[in-house]
Design brief:
The structure is a single chain. By secondary structure, the chain is mainly beta. The chain is built from three helices and 20 strands. The two termini are about 40 Å apart. The N terminus is likely disordered.
Length: about 250
């Protein structure tokens, strides 16, 4: 059996890249990337976003599974220990050539087989689906949409973050000012003052100036975000439908 454009991008299909901006949290398993404003591996922990799956029922005992190593184009078969009536989850579908026929395969998981990282599929004829199994491209699009919706919900729900200096020397305080009354641009100037190591500050505003972000800590004081670490993030209840809430796993 030879594949017919089995997947357009393994990186896109198996390890989607996304991030939570403005939450103090980072996306993980199987989506993992740094946030764009505040991301942290501190006590705030991380959240994981599960992929949507489709439940299928196995039609007979020990159906053959189709596998393909990431560095190969030809498929192979392995035995399974699935039993008739067993329910398993699949993620997306693709097509492969088998002689003159085209068969539909459902992707189950990644697995190391004979020392190689391989994709594992089950033929559509060996299972009964509970719903429509999306194509690989539709699966990727849906997963990205899910991540973005959850990302946006966290950004909207963020009330404030609690920060503290990374260095034992503390962190330098900056003040914002305009060069003139007519000027619309804000400039940040360093002071000789610092905030102490171990002291915590609440912030609900981050200002970006060029490539630098400044965290507002009250009393007209700002601190460079790079000099701070996030201790915690306070969120209001997420405004999300249940199907998206069910995809969130807090670690």
């Amino acid at each position: 059996m030879k594949t017919k454009k089995l997947f357009t991008s393994l990186a896109a299909a198996v390890m989607l890249s996304a991030g939570l901006a403005g939450t103090g949290m980072a996306m993980g398993q199987p989506v993992h990337a740094a946030g764009t404003t505040q991301s942290s591996n501190t006590k705030t922990g991380t959240i994981s976003v599960k992929h949507r799956t489709v439940s299928v029922t196995v039609n007979s005992d020990n159906p053959k599974l189709v596998v393909i190593a990431k560095d190969q184009t030809n498929t192979d078969q392995i035995d399974s220990n699935y039993t008739k009536g067993q329910t398993i989850n699949v993620l997306w579908s693709t097509e492969a050539k088998q002689g003159d026929k085209t068969v539909t395969l459902y992707y189950i998981e990644n697995r190391t087989i004979n020392g190689k990282d391989s994709l594992v599929f089950i033929p559509s004829t060996d299972v009964t689906t509970s719903g429509n199994v999306p194509t690989e491209s539709a699966f990727v699009e849906q997963a990205n949409n899910d991540v973005k919706a959850i990302q946006d919900a966290y950004k909207r729900s963020l009330q404030y973050i609690t920060v503290t200096p990374k260095s034992k020397k503390g962190a330098k305080i900056y003040y914002a000012y305009k060069k003139s009354k007519k000027s619309k641009k804000i400039t940040f100037a360093a002071s000789k003052k610092t905030i102490k190591y171990g002291k915590k500050y609440k912030s609900s505003m981050i200002v970006k100036k060029g490539k630098t972000r400044y965290v507002y800590i009250g009393k007209k004081r700002y601190v460079k975000q790079s000099a701070l670490k996030i201790v915690s993030a306070k969120h209001a209840p997420l405004n999300l439908p249940d199907d998206l809430k069910n995809l969130i796993v807090k670690n």
